[in-house]
Amino acid sequence: MAPLQHNFIFCLYKLCGFCLAVLLMAVYGCKTSGELPAYLSINSMQVLAQSNQGSASHNIKNVWVFINSQPLGVYELPASVPVLEEGAVQVLLRAGIANNGISETRSIYPFYAADTFSVQLAPMQAINRNSLLRYNSGTAFAFITDFEVGNNFDDTNPNQNLLDITGNPALVFEGSRSATLTISQANPAFEIGTIDYYTLPGNKVPVYLELNYQCDQPFQVAVKGVNAGGNGVILPVLYVNTKNTWNKIYIDLTETVSALGAEGLNQFQILFKSQLENNGATQASFYWDNIKLLYQN
């Protein structure tokens, strides 16, 4: 993402947060002074994935809270949320993520269904909640690969054979296999991509890539779009930063896919690539697991 674009989004995010805070203060300022809140304690949010939806791994960072359809705020998990309401209320909780792995771009993840429930509230009462979330019914999976059986990715250069599948328990995220790749001074660069091309919606319909990863240096995620004649265009999406332990990231491909689709490119390939950094390192390793390409159907 270009610096100016990132700064604009960050400023817009802060402005929206400020406006929400002012609105909430105005709403609660109308209530009787000295009113005591109830507390909604949201201890955790977990994902329940069906057998055809791949891994249940997640990286839910925060919760977006709505009371009687009105936004109350965004809270880091675990959260203790004061609620200045009494009696029966309808609670709606949405899972929040760091969009594209950027902590400043908090957003609701559109593919996790909301946790909704009714509760009776009284002043100083504590309500504990452990949310169990599912993928919403409109979620479509273009592909899911956990490298247990088969592999959706391969080296794009037929003269390279860098991508491998490891069963070493010390290198596997979950299950019994993960993908791995190492570049060195002898082979200082790589590019891997999905073997198949996929049809994805345009017109700003949400499209995301989920993956677990670990890497010694950053790697780039890009999307290649091709038309019926086989002509293609590659658009970079972002660089995934170095992570020495396994991490989950949600990569927003919506704008990229829509931009390519607007140019008549209607089949899409996911690409990962990197080059050995000039920092004295003699090699760098990359690991991936549980890669999902999903969109709103």
Model description:
Helix content is 12%, strand content 48%. With 297 residues, the protein is mainly β. The protein folds into 2 domains: 3-133, Immunoglobulin-like, CATH 2.60.40; 139-296, Sandwich (Jelly Rolls). Strands 9, 11, 12, 14, 17 and 19 form a 6-stranded antiparallel beta sheet that branches. Strands 2, 3, 5, 6 and 7 form a 5-stranded antiparallel beta sheet that branches. Strands 10-13-18-15-16 form a 5-stranded antiparallel beta sheet. The chain is elongated, with a radius of gyration of 22 Å.
Layout: helices, strands, pairs:
Layout: H1 3-29, E1 38-47, E2 62-67, E3 70-76, E4 79-83, E5 87-98, E6 106-108, E7 115-121, E8 126-133, E9 139-145, E10 153-155, E11 164-166, E12 178-184, E13 189-194, E14 207-215, E15 219-226, E16 232-240, E17 243-252, H2 254-262, E18 267-275, E19 283-296
Parallel strand pairs: 1-8
Antiparallel strand pairs: 1-4, 2-3, 2-5, 5-6, 5-7, 9-19, 10-13, 11-12, 12-19, 13-18, 14-17, 14-19, 15-16, 15-18
Write the CATH fold name of the largest domain. Answer: Jelly Rolls
Assigned CATH superfamily of the largest domain: Galactose-binding domain-like
The total number of structural domains is 2
Shape: elongated
The radius of gyration over CA amounts to 22 Å
Distance between the termini: 27 Å
Can you describe this structure in just a few lines?
By secondary structure, the chain is mainly beta. The chain has helices at about 5-30, 255-260, and strands at about 40-45, 60-65, 70-75, 80-85, 85-100, 105-110, 115-120, 125-135, 140-145, 155, 165, 180-185, 190-195, 205-215, 220-225, 230-240, 245-250, 265-275, 285-295.
